[in-house]
Amino acid sequence: MSAEVYWIWLATRTNLGAARIKPLVEYFLSAENIYKCGYKDFQDIRGINPNIAEQLLDKDLSFAEKAILNCHNNNYSIITIADEKYPQRLKNIYDPPVVLYIDGNLPDVDNLPVVGIVGTRRCTPYGVKNAEAAGYKLSLNGFTVVTGLAEGIDTAATRGALRGSTPTVGVIGCGIDKVFPASNREIYKDVASKGAVVSEYPPGTPAVPGHFPSRNRIISGLSNGVAVIEAPERSGALITAQRALEEGRDVFVLPGNVDAATCVGSNKLLRDGAIPFMSADDIIDEYKDSYKVIKKPFDNNVTVDYIDLDKLTEKLDDKSKLIMKSIGNNPVDVDDIIANTSIDAQNVLSVLTMLELDGYLRRNLIGKWEIIN
Question: Theoretical Cys-Cys bridge with 70: which of 149, 203, 289, 343, CB 3.0 to 4.6 Å?
Answer without folding.
Answer: 203
